[in-house]
Design a protein that fits this description.
The complex is a heterodimer of chains A (about 750) and B (about 325).
Chain A lengths: L5 H22 L4 H22 L12 H21 L6 H19 L3 H21 L7 H17 L1 H7 L11 H19 L25 H5 L5 H6 L12 H5 L5 H5 L13 E4 L15 E5 L4 E5 L17 E4 L5 E7 L1 E2 L4 E2 L10 E5 L2 E5 L1 H9 L4 E8 L13 E6 L9 E2 L5 E2 L11 E7 L3 H7 L7 H9 L2 H14 L6 H15 L1 E2 L10 H7 L1 E2 L1 H14 L4 E8 L5 E2 L4 E4 L4 E8 L5 E4 L14 H28 L1 H15 L5 H18 L10 H9 L3 H19 L12 H5 L2 H12 L1
Parallel strand pairs in A: 15-16
Antiparallel strand pairs in A: 1-2, 2-3, 4-10, 4-19, 5-17, 6-7, 8-9, 9-11, 10-14, 11-14, 12-13, 17-20, 18-19, 20-21
Helix pairs in contact in A: 1-4, 1-5, 1-6, 2-3, 2-4, 3-4, 4-5, 5-6, 15-19, 16-18, 17-19, 21-22, 22-24, 23-24
Chain B lengths: L4 H8 L7 H13 L4 H12 L4 E4 L6 H11 L4 E5 L6 H5 E6 L4 E6 L6 E5 L6 H13 L1 E4 L2 E4 L5 E6 L12 H4 L4 E3 L6 H16 L15 H13 L1 E2 L1 H16 L3 E3 L3 H17 L4 E2 L1 H13 L3 E2 L4 H11 L7
Helix pairs in contact in B: 2-3, 2-4, 3-11, 9-11, 10-11, 11-12, 12-13
The chains are: A alpha+beta (about 750), B alpha/beta (about 325).
């Protein structure tokens, strides 16, 4: 009989964990009944092995069963594989092989008599858990090997600690003072690592190169793997080996959303079962009977003794006019954004119009992964600079009577599948994407829109106020003087403490959003900018106009934009897109940066403001600017505390010792030696485990004769109290040493001893 | 380290009092063997614990001198056997001889009946003769012609073996090794001791004496020694110290590099040596430090290692097993 040693328990646990990692792979694929039966048998055999092997006394004969049952553990998956195949629901060969591995590691873990053999179980279960995770499609499968490795590392270290400890060089003492710096470095390195991969953890599973541990062949051996699903011949050929995992080695398969061989066959391994003895046939009907709505099919069924023909009910055809929802466009991408249709840069006091000519007939054509993209040349340069900041959204045009394409701000380029004609795309006079030469964008066109995200840092560095801006001065002529003074008053009150144009602009927009009320219709609704500034109520066009004018008064070039607002609640998760309705028409403003780009501002309350994420550096600078006194004081206090840690820790320890004055001698000595050991540990002079406290004290204090004498007396009295037969009441504890040995002295003494 | 013998005694004077008998043996031996204070203490501890001593050393390092000095220090008879391959068991135990006059067998005791037996180069004699020593060392009696003969109550064996020139030698069997309490290596004296050794020779020749002159300290009687040995047995061993010895012994048995660990008899020897060591330090109780102090001498005689050197293994065992703390 074996004891329940820690090694044994942990090895068994690891083997069980490895086996458990296999279960999710098999459970959904195989016949449930066979799978559960196999698991129950395995658990039963495992229990029998464990119980019988511990049998003793009257039942000791039972222990003879232990080894045979351990051996039969290994053969159980094979037996089940054979049986299940015979009865028509075969188990994949690979899965049976892996299950044998799992059972083998379980058997070794329970029945091994020596640690060496038991280690074999670790190797087998380690292989199993890694392999299972590598072939699993579930992104959470990584948890199994992680937990397994954690437990295994613990197991290895805990059970072989003595050897590890001895392998460490004896001359190197553990140095307490190193620890905080090592800790900080570790935290920084780990934090940096996590930060650098935080966005990419789930982004791609592509293997750059190497061997994929699957049996479906690789790019050289299997045409299906080489060509993807391809013509289908390979898929049909692969049907002969349906137990295979399918080809997963090529990039195409890993990245493709098409079904893989594995997906195609994973629900029926082997030949599909014949569910019924019937067959169907579609039969053309005579011309004279043709009813177009019925199509031209009927269904005939021939059973063993029956034959029937019935017309197939006509499939319901859906046309654009049948659609239920009144969407203008559908948008698959971030919500809470604006899709721009028209832009206007000139304001005459009442109406906006476009005066600058930004028209561009030919866009830059770039072929990306065999699809043709058409880029705005100006934006293409920025997009090339920040390839990671580019995001692609899908726009489906449904009922838009315009040749313009509604796109988000900073749109660099567009792409329509299979369209590679340069003359289909262009930029209109006001700078909006359009499909020139046609009345409207054809309905059901799906446009891929690549837009570039904007960082707040860029805005801050590129938003430059131009005091000689002509737009701002023109205002005086176009709108009423009272409105101009209202605007200036608004700017003054909003930007009282701001100097940077970005901050000033934000403050103005915030004022509009907070102090003005959106009201599309009503008695107090303003109709002109002058009345709006007085009543502070109006539609979104007034908000946008006011914001554009405010920006101009700040010296920034601005323009008005009309288009659609994608409501945050418009996204239909089931359909996978957001519907933009006619009532989502919206007006907002844009401000120009000094490099020519235009950024959106959203002055209307109730509409989500555009997100310009600040970089970590900017955030840190902001935080530092806001709370530098606290940071500085905190750092100072921390540094002082760290530098003087030995002093105040020594104070605290000495205070503990002072509290122990009234203890009885035995307890007092116990506290005294504990305090000396604490101090020595703080000074980096920990007592080695095998060294008796007396010898340690003598070696520590030998550099100073007076302290050495005190140490000898302390050790003498401690020896007498703890190992001699002494009456506690008759003898005093010699604890002078504790007062003589503060941390400083220990450090000095050990330096003198080594020099 | 203090190199002169006398100041060494004086530095000890501020510690707890050492029994007078012990200090007199110690002074006697220190007057003979220079610069070997620690080894002398171990030899005395071995004597007080009624154990036997194995010296593993090169020729000319003072083994015989030490044996003679011990015999003199306790007023005992010294017998010396030079072990050779043709030495017979009867040569050391003694034999019965027919006396023509009395018409009876008379027993002629051999060297084993002395108080101190020096068995020089024990590994050169045959295992048969080596094992003749066994009964005497363990039981303190020999059986000759069926009748037991008790040995001296203070019977003390000092066996030596020569680590070099092992050709044609019979290494001592483990059973015999385990009967020795400790193994010592005297080694060459340091420079100062060597100088004093040479000076003494000059001084003695001038006095017309010569050879190893007896030191001036007063010797001990055999009765005194016996009472000291009884005192040693009375030194108390705290149960935690005893458990420490058990821990160390078990660690030596479980160590991978050890083929044969410490036997229970070895543990008893160890404890006895610790008791004597405590007495030498003037204490009536054993501390963990005593256990560690004598560990090398006690373990080196009875650990059989694979590949690794015995000293390294002992160091490792002492490092890994936690010593009892003041708790």
């Amino acid at each position: 009989m074996q004891r329940w040693s820690r090694r044994r328990i942990e090895t068994l646990l690891l083997a069980l964990l490895a086996f458990a990692s296999l279960a999710p792979l098999r459970f959904h694929v195989e016949s449930r009944r066979w799978f559960i039966a196999e698991m129950v048998t395995l658990i039963g055999l495992l229990a029998v092995t464990i119980v019988t092997e511990r049998a003793r006394g009257r039942w000791s004969k039972l222990s003879r069963v232990a080894y045979p049952s351990a051996a039969s553990l290994v053969f159980t998956p094979i037996a089940y594989a054979a049986a299940a195949r015979t009865f028509g629901s075969p188990i994949a060969f690979e899965m049976s092989a892996l299950a044998v591995f799992g059972a083998l590691s379980l058997a070794i873990a329970t029945a091994a008599t020596t640690d060496r053999v038991r280690s074999l179980s670790l190797i087998v279960s380690g292989f199993l858990v890694l392999f299972s995770a590598s072939i699993s499609d579930d992104r959470n499968a990584i948890a199994f090997p992680l937990v397994w490795i954690l437990v295994c590392v613990w197991h290895l270290i805990a059970n072989r600690w003595e050897r590890l400890d001895l392998a460490l060089p004896a001359a190197v003492e553990r140095h307490w003072t190193l620890q905080p710096s090592v800790l900080i470095m570790t935290v920084m390195v780990l934090g940096g690592t996590v930060f650098s991969i935080k966005d990419r953890v789930w982004s791609s599973n592509r293997l750059a190169w190497g061997f994929s541990p699957a049996s479906g062949g690789n790019a050289w051996s299997d045409p299906a793997a080489r060509d993807g699903v391809g013509t289908g011949d390979a898929a049909i050929a692969a049907k002969d080996h349906a137990e295979s995992f399918g080809a997963v080695d090529s990039e195409l398969f890993l990245e493709s959303t098409e079904s893989t061989l594995f997906d195609m066959f994973n629900d029926m391994i082997g030949e599909p079962k014949k569910m019924r003895n019937k067959w169907e046939r579609r039969q053309a009907m005579g011309n004279e009977n043709l009813i177009p709505t019925h199509e031209q099919a009927a269904k005939s069924e021939q059973g063993s003794g029956t034959f029937s023909t019935e017309r197939t009910p006509p499939t319901k055809h859906r046309h654009l006019n049948d659609r239920v929802e009144d969407s203008v466009v559908q948008w698959d991408g971030p919500t809470g954004i604006r899709l721009a249709m028209h832009r206007y840069d000139t304001f005459d006091g009442h109406d906006w119009s476009q005066s600058a000519d930004l028209k561009r007939d030919s866009l830059t054509r770039v072929d990306i992964q065999q699809s043709s993209w058409f880029f705005d040349p100006a934006m293409r340069t920025f997009q090339m600079l920040h390839p990671n900041a580019t995001s692609v959204g899908l726009l489906k045009v449904l009922k838009l009577d315009s040749q313009r394409i509604p796109v988000p701000m900073m749109t660099a380029g567009v792409h329509i599948k299979d369209i590679d004609r340069q003359d289909f795309f262009g930029i209109s006079r006001d700078g909006c994407f359009q499909m020139p030469g046609r009345q409207k964008v054809p309905p059901l066109t799906v446009v891929h829109v690549a837009s570039v995200k904007m960082m707040e840092d860029e805005i801050r560095s590129h938003l430059v106020a131009n005091s000689t801006s002509t737009q701002g001065q023109k205002l005086d002529e176009t709108i009423a003087p009272s409105a101009v003074s209202d605007l200036d008053a608004l700017i003054r009150s909003a930007t009282a403490h701001q100097t940077h144009p970005a901050d000033q602009l934000n403050a103005c927009v915030a004022t509009l959003r907070n102090e003005f009320t959106l009201e599309r219709s009503g008695e107090q609704t303003a109709t002109s900018i002058e009345r709006f500034l007085r009543s502070r109520r109006g539609g979104d066009h007034l908000f946008a106009t006011t914001a554009a004018l405010l920006a101009r008064r700040l010296g920034l070039a601005s323009r008005l934009v009309t288009g659609f607002y994608v409501r945050p609640d418009a996204f239909n998760f089931a359909a996978g897109h957001a519907s933009v309705l006619p009532r989502d028409v919206h007006v907002w403003a844009e401000v120009q940066l000094d490099d020519g780009r235009w950024i959106e501002i959203e002055p209307t309350p109730g509409y989500r403001a555009p997100v310009y994420a600040p970089s970590w550096g900017l955030l840190a600078r902001r935080y530092a600017a806001a709370s530098w006194p606290v940071l500085l004081a905190g750092t100072f206090v921390f540094a002082i505390g760290y530098l003087t840690r030995l002093i105040w820790m020594d104070w605290m320890i000495s205070a503990v010792w002072k509290c122990g004055r009234s203890l009885r001698p035995r307890r007092r000595i116990r506290l005294g030696i504990q305090i000396i050991e604490w101090r020595a540990r703080l000074a980096g002079k920990r007592r080695p485990i095998g060294k008796s406290q007396r010898v340690w004290l003598e070696q520590l204090t030998r550099a100073d004769a007076m302290i050495a004498e005190a140490a000898r007396q302390f050790a003498d009295s401690a020896d007498a109290f703890f190992f001699g037969q002494i009456d506690e009441t008759t003898m005093n504890a010699e604890t002078r040493l504790v007062d003589l040995l503060p941390i400083r002295t220990i450090t000095t003494l050990s330096k003198e001893a080594t020099s | 380290m203090n190199l002169t013998a006398d100041p060494m005694v004086s530095t000890k004077s501020n510690g707890p009092p050492v029994p007078t008998g012990v200090s007199s043996i110690r002074n006697y031996l220190r007057g003979v063997l220079f610069g070997k204070e620690d080894q002398i203490d171990l030899v005395i501890a071995c004597l007080l614990s009624r154990g036997h001593l194995l010296l593993d050393d090169l020729p000319g390092t003072g083994k015989t001198t030490l044996a003679k000095a011990i015999a003199e220090a306790i007023h005992g008879r010294l017998a010396r056997v030079q072990c050779t391959p043709d030495l017979m068991p009867a040569d050391i135990t003694g034999f019965s001889m027919f006396n023509q006059k009395t018409r009876e067998f008379e027993f002629h005791p051999g060297p084993m009946f002395a108080d101190v037996l020096l068995a020089d180069e024990l590994n050169r004699t045959t295992p048969r003769t080596q094992s003749a020593l066994l009964e005497g060392m363990a039981e303190r009696q020999v059986t000759i012609d069926g009748s037991p003969h008790p040995l001296s109550p203070t019977f003390f064996v000092i066996a030596t073996q020569n680590p070099i020139d092992s050709h044609g030698a019979y290494p001592l069997p483990e059973a015999q090794l385990d009967r020795f309490s400790i193994k010592l290596r005297l080694g060459y004296p340091d420079r100062d001791a060597q100088r004093r050794l040479l000076q003494r020779e000059v001084h003695d020749s001038a006095n017309g004496q010569g050879g190893n002159a007896a030191p001036t300290a007063t010797p001990l009687s055999l009765d005194d020694l016996q009472s000291l040995q009884q005192k040693t047995q009375a030194v108390s061993v705290h149960h935690r110290v005893a458990e420490y010895i058990i821990d160390l012994a078990e660690a030596s048995r479980n160590d991978d590099a050890v083929e044969l660990g410490v036997s229970p008899r070895g543990m008893m020897h160890w404890q006895a040596i610790c008791q004597a060591w405590a007495l030498l330090k003037g204490r009536d109780f054993v501390t963990p430090t005593d256990v560690a102090d004598v560990a090398h001498s006690v373990l080196s005689v009875r650990l059989l290692t694979r590949g690794e050197s015995v000293d390294a293994v002992i160091d490792r065992i002492m490092k890994t097993v936690p010593a009892p703390e003041y708790k």
